[in-house]
Each structure stands twice: as structure tokens, then as C-alpha cells.
Amino acid sequence: MVSSTEYGSRTWELLLTVDHQHEDVKNEFPLQVTGDLHVGGLMLKLVEEIKIAQDWSDYAFWWEQKKCWLLKTHWTLDKWGVQADAKLIFTTQHKMLRLRLPNMKTVRLKVSFSSTVFRAVSDICKMLNIRRSEELSLLKQSEGTLKKKKKKDKNSKEPAIEDIINLSDSPVSSGLPANAGLYSKTMTPVYDPVSGSPASSTITWFSDGSSSEQNCSILALSHPTCSPEMLAEMYQPRTLADKAKLNAGWLDSSRSLMEQGVLEEDQLLLRFKYYTFFDLNPKYDAVRINQIYEQARWAILLEEIDCTEEEMLIFAALQAYHVSKLSLSSETQDSTCESEVDEVEAALSNLEVTLEGGNKSNILEDITDIPKLADNLKLVRPKKLALKAIKTYWFVFRDTSISYFKNKESAQGEPVEKLNLKGCEVVPDVNVAAKKFGIKLLIPVADGMNEVYLRCDNEDQYARWMAACVLASKGRTMADSSYQPEVQKILSFLQMKNWTMSSQAASEPENVDMKPECFVSPRYIKKFKSKQLTARILEAHQNVSQMSLVEAKLRFIQAWQSLPEFGLSYYIVRFKGSKKDDVLGVSYNRLIRIDMATGDPITTWRFSNMKQWNVNWEIRQVAIEFDQNVFIAFTCLSADCKIIHEYIGGYIFLSTRSKDHNETLDEELFHKLTGGQE
Prior knowledge:
Ubiquitin-like (UB roll); 7-stranded antiparallel beta sheet; alpha+beta; PH-domain like; 24 strands; single chain
């Protein structure tokens, strides 16, 4: 038997704070507890003490000093390490959060502050009808990207009142579990092919009420109303160091929002973090396609990614087209809700869009033939004193290598040089108007990158050789099923660039109510007068005027993906053994070391050649081992090394996705690849 005095010596007082809205009830409750009391018992004891009749199911303990949730309610206080000085707050796990979407709209919704960010983003995407949540994450704007905005805000007389879409009544937002069958392939959501907005029959699968339908339409439609003044107020990176600031604030996907200092009603950015857009399908992805399009549009307008004048006009034409099309689609939008598409027919047409592969008759031919290219091309080698040596050779492309000979007759002998393109950088050097079709190859060698320029004679030749080079850089040959689609993609992009000024387009600038400053980046606004820009955008517009709205968005995304810098996230790093800082570009299939001063690539390492990588958490150093005994190590200066570690693991995780099992995500594998052990 234990006496009462001995028992009393085992108990101790724990002061608990309750986060509730009842003003007439106190917030702090001292309780007598023992170390072997489990957290669930403590919660029960506290609720009995509070004496307020309400639903406490969403409440949990937050340990302020340790910055962690006590979610394992079967653990005892001793196991958690809770002592009398612990500050425990009994608070809701779901709280209101403001999210700035890629289209610059802000939504306010209830999000789990206790789940990992990976799971929270998954719930958010279900709420917004965005598939493939693993491609997105939450970004906290870094101080460097906010300084300019604050200075501008001081000068503005009337701050703009932000239009916030409130989604706080959504089932997921209320803390209820999301519908497990939300993206089941047996249901075929139908989207209007003109506006890209969901038809009314599908809304019932996602949410309830007309307000949800309206919000869904807002997220699926683009409203390009930016002005030069608005652009001037936003952060525009000028250098690689500036671009590195954009990627410094990614949240850790393995930890909760609360653990990372995010508070209720804070604003975060929801962005596509990983540039591998898997299984894009207009029938399912109206919102997703629009948000990818918007992220691409703002990246181009704010010069986060470089493009040529010709490419900028293509992007401007596709945007300008949206403006005129939207005014028409808004009138016809109501009538589209009445038109229903048979589910079986929709599923069959979806199958045609989704399935990959070429013509059936070519399958045997692809297996038996070893594809190769052979053509006369011009080789351009940069020389000193800014001179270039241009000479025509007979080029043969086989497997992943290019060999060139003095002429066609000598092709049976030894080549002048053989270039292995595996792991190289392929950069287009094209000006359709000037009939310039060049391919810039940066081939890895022991002491850096070897530059080689190839010049083609025409569009067809360029498309075939460019597609072969792109595949070879990834270690694939022309026998790969993606070769022909890659050729067609390049040809369609060249066709968009290939326009001639018609007499009608020449006379239209006076009559068209267009503000070209809204569709091009500030650099081109300074370069051209308004009428000149309007005329040139109308020229480019001729090649895209027959497209549907969704097709125009997809073409915009494809053109964005064709840019040399597409998908690169930049970080300032210091490589082991180096005395100066470099920039590291992280892409979906490679890492690139870039000279910070010149912007030139120094070395490329492919993920396909990577054997292992690890992080020394004490000195915050990332170490990677590649094939052929190549080792690199670096510390990250512009962000936490955990962000780069998660990027590498995240891209490897996304490369494991397959259409055979694309409905479920292996969250455990994601955390294994990205979590790390700190």
C-alpha cells in the first residue's frame, strides 16, 4: 500500500493553456499530473476541467518550447519528456491560412497545421480540384523578394484591396477527410473545351453548392489584367543571385506548418515546385492546366526565365488571344453547362489522348532497325578574338553519339571527331525570321564543358537533329518511342514562330483595343513603342488564332518547357575545395554548376548516373557520388541544405510514377527519399 503523502510526492503541477473563443472562461488551467499519465488521459482530464460543451476532436497539445505536436496520445508524459516547466497549448489542428495561387488569386481556407506539409498540400489540392499534388508545395516569400515591394508600397497612395476567395466551408477545409475516390478513373469529369471550366455535372463529385462551382470556375479561368505598374511593384530577378532568392523559402515537406513557424492567417505561396507535369489531361485538369499556365506566364513576365524576342512575341500572342477569347467564352459559358457528354464516349476519347506510342505498323520496324541520322551540317567552333570557324562536314548520329567526317565518301573510315552527348546540355539557337537553325552543345569534359555549335539548313533538319540531341543528352536513342513526338513538338513550336505580316494585321493596330505592355516583360516594353508591339503581337497571333482556349494554354506550357532554362531552380553554393561561390541549378534530371559571374554552365551531373547522396547535418554539407568515381560536395549559402536534399529526392520520387498505378502515392517512399535524419 502507498500512503497519501508518498503518492502526493509523485504528482506535480502542469500549467496548460487552452486556445478557445469563450471570453467568460479562463485560458489557463493548472492540473496535478504524474509522469505515467498518457497524453490522451491528460486531454480528457483537461476537457473535464474546462466544463465547456463543444466538439474538442480537432484539438491537440502543442509544445511551445520544443516546437512539436504531442500527437501520439498513447505516449506518457515521461516518454515525451514533459516536465513541470513545459508550456503546452491545447489548440485546434486545423487553422485558417491564406494561399497565393500561381494565378495571383488568394484563397482563404482551413488547413491542417499538425500534418506534414506533404499531406497538407495533398488536402489543399483536393479542395482546389488539382490532381498530382506531389508536384506542388508551399513557399514562404523570403525577405529579399519582399523588400522591393515594401518600398513601392510606401510610395503608393491607395493600397489595393486584395480580392480573397473564401473556401473555409469546404469539407476538407473543415477538417473532414477528403473523398478517397476523388480522382477515380471510372468517373470522367467533363470540361468545356472552349473555356476549360468544369461542367456542372462534375461539380457534385468535388463539392457542394453554387459557390463551390463559382470558385472552381475562377481557378480554371485566366484573367490577365496585369499592368506595367503592377509588374513594377513585383519582385523581378536581375541576376542568378536574385533568382536564387526565389527558391530559398520552400517549406520542409516532412514537417508540419506549425513546426516551421507558420501562424494562423499567415500568407504562403502555393506553387508547382517540381517541373514534371505528369499525365496532363484537359478532361480532368482544367484547374491544374490553368494554374501551370499562370505560373509560366508570370515567370516570363517577371523575367524569372530568359527567352528571345521571337519567343516573347509568341507568349504575348497566346496571352492576348486569351483576352479576346475570354469575353466570348463568358457569354457562352452558361450554355455549356447544359451540354452533357456521354461518359463512355468521353472515356474512349480520353484513352486516345492519354495513351502513348506511335503508329502500330512501325512497331516491328522500330525493333529491327537501328535508327541513325546522316546529313551535311555546318560545325561552328568559337575561336579567340571573337572569331568563329564555320565549316561543313558530313555528320552521322548513331545511338547517343555524333561523329563527323570531311565528306560523305570518307564516312566508312575514322571520323574527325566523335562526340558523346550523354549528359550534355542542349541549347536551341534559333531565329526563324532570319532562317537561323542552330544547336548549341555543351559537352562535359574533365576540366569543364566543351562548346560545339551545329547549324542546320532548314526546319525539318533542325527538328530531327535537335530531338536526337535532346534524347541523347538523357541517355536515350532515336529508337525511343518519344523521338517522333519530340520532333513534332519542335516543328509545331517553330511553326508558331514562323509568321509573316499580312495587310490585315498591319491595319489592325489602330483598331485593336490592346495594351501590349500587359503581355511582355519590362525589357521589351522599353525596347519597342506600343504600336510596334501591338503590330508584332498581331503578326504572331495569326498562327494561334484557330486554337481552342485549352489548346492555347497547353501550347503556352509547351513553349515554356522548350526554353533552355525551363525547370531550373537556382541556389548559391560553395563547392568543397573551391574558393569562390557558384550557382547550382537543380532540374528534374540533372544538377548544373554555373559560373556566378558569367552565367555559363561549368559542369553537368545527371541523376541517372548518381549512385548515392547524403547530407552531413552537422556542417550542412551535401555529398553526392556519381558513376566513374565522381564525387562532389557543397554547402548551400542561399538556403538550407535540406531544400536541395528534398529537391533531389523529390525528383527521383516523381520519376518512379507510372500510369499503371497512378491513383495512389507512396508517401512513405517520398519521406524516405526527402526526409533526411537531422
